What does this fold into?
Amino acid sequence: MHTPEAVWREAERALREAEHILAITHVAPDGDAVGSLLGFTHALRSLGKHVVPTCQDVPHARFGFLAGLNDIRQSAEGEFDLVVALDASDRTRLGAVFSPERHAHLPMLVIDHHITNLQFGTLNIVEPHVSSTAELVLKLIKQMGLPLTPQIANALLTGVITDTQAFRTTNTTPASLAAAMELMQHGGNLQEVTRQALLLRPFEHLRLLGAGLVNTKLEGRVAYATIPQKLRKELGVHEERGDGGLAGTLMTAQEVDVAAVFVELVSGDVEVSLRGQPGFDVSQLALELGGGGHPAAAGCTLPGPLKDAVNHVLPRLRQLVREA
Ligand code: 5GP
Ligand code: MN
It folds into this structure.
């Protein structure tokens, strides 16, 4: 999948014509979601556009070093003439910010790099071989000749660094390194971004990670763990969601080909994180389950209880390993 140059030019025209832009990134935002959203917002504001950056969920405090983080709103008030969806593979990922009644009639530019993207915009810049949505925003900024300020550079570098896990994942390409170099040359601070957005975390994440590791089961080459709400309470973890980095940590075991972490939400739904070693593709399974992602890292949300979600996913993971 490759976005034709004509679509890039149409996207530029739509952005230049728009006055009021609603920018939305995906629920439970990660570094690429927040970085792309802020980089895009700063850049389009330099053109004099009114841009409202939104996300259903409040971004994690670890992104507090990025300029404009507190400007991100959890709802979209006002009238808009263009919606821009960033790092989201389908409309449900936009969460409650996107209102079908108020926004479905508007033109929508989708900028994303998930292989499972459903091309749900009126214009779709979707490039699955690109490591991060931030790289796509950088390309757009350069195409439009907008100034690349240190604020924008740090926001976009956050996307590149978090989605490549500091250039360690299989989606890292020479282009990702070139993008990072350019962002550093324009004031991006690689060490600061890596430390703040990737390495540092609240102590409670470590407690959750520790407990999750103790709970992890290894069946053949499939590792899986559940994190019930009860466990979070026992550990005194304040955040409702997230696995403390457990899914990624499980992939550091030599005995593991694929991994799944099941996080019970307060609503009773279960957030599933899927991971696969190089050569394994968990994205299609996530898509079948109503979610999406990348070959090596994907996810979905399933109805509870936890046990049902586990029983639904595990046989499919075993099959995935058998067929590899
Ligand atoms: P994580 O396991 O770190 O939450 O997510 C890994 C990848 O899967 C990310 O690229 C994320 O965007 C995607 N992903 C996680 N959960 C969902 C989901 O419920 N729906 C979709 N479409 N993608 C998801
Ligand atoms: Mn991303």
In short: The mean pLDDT is 97. The longest helix spans residues 306-323. The first strand starts at residue 20 and ends at 25. The pocket of guanosine-5'-monophosphate (ligand 1) is lined by residues 89-90, 93, 247, 273, 291-294, 297-301 (CB under 6 Å).
